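Appendix B. One record, verbatim.
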Amino acid sequence: MTANINSPADYNNKFPPVGSSRRQEKAWVKPTLIGIALGYLALVLFIPTLNVFYQAFRKGVGPFFANLTSPDFLHAAQLTLVISLIVVPINTVFGLCAAWVIGRHKFPGRTLLISILDVPFAISPVVAGLMIVLLYGRVGWFGPWLDAANIRVIFAFPGMVLATAFVTLPFVAREVIPVLEEVGTDQEEAAKTLGANDWQIFWNVTLPSIRWGLLYGVILTNARAMGEFGAVSVVSGNIAKKTQTLPLFVEDAYKQYATQAAFSAAVVLGLLAVVTLVLKEILERKTRIKEVEE
C-alpha cells in the first residue's frame, strides 16, 4: 500500500526529519529550567525583599522616616560609615601591593600566598571574630600588653575595624591580579626604557590599565564592610550608641520587637546593595567596552 504524497509538506508529515522528535522532546527543558530558577529566586530573594519593604512602609512613610531619624539608628549608620571610610582605603592600598607582588613576580611560595589571601573567603566571619578575641582579648595572646598600655580592642571600635578589615581583605587584590596578568608588562617596560621611574610608571601606565578592576574591588570591599555582621557581632558587644553598626541595629531592633525600625534599617541596607549592583554593572559594561575597543 503506497501513501499519497503530493508535496514536500506531505512527505515531512509522513516521514519527519531525523532528530525532529528529539528536538520537540527537548523543547520543554528550557522553559522548565527557567521556571525553576525564577521560582527559586522568588522564594529566597523576591518575596523576602518585598516583605521587607512592605513591613517598613506598612504604617506609612512618616513612621519610616521617623525610624531613620532615631538616635540609635543615626549612631549605627554613622559608625558603619566611619568603619567603611577607614577599612576601604587600607584594604585598597594592601590589595594593590599584594596584587603587584603576585601579578608581577614569580617566586617560591606564590601559590601559598594566594591561598592565604583567600582565607577570609574560606572561614566563617564568626570564626574570624573569635580569632580576634583570642588574640586581642584580655586573656588573649596580646591581651596583657594591651591592658598594660590601657588599649582596649575587644568590645570597642578598634576590634570592629580589625574584624571588618579581615573579612574585606581579599576583594581588591582578587580583582586586580587577573587584570595585571592580562595586561602584561610590555607597556611598563617601554616606559622604563624611555626613562620613567617606578612611580611615574605606576601612575601613568599601570593604574590606568587596572582602574576598572580596582574600582570594582573597592565597590565590593565597601559593600561587604557596610553589611558585615558575623565578625563584628563577636568583637563589638553590640552596645547601642557605642559599638552597634547598622546590621547589628537591625538584629537588636527586631529582638526588641521594634520590627518596623528593624525593617526600615534593612531597607537602607537593601538600597545600598542595589547601588552596589548598579555600580558593578556599570563597571562591567565599561570593562567589556574597553576590551572590544582594544
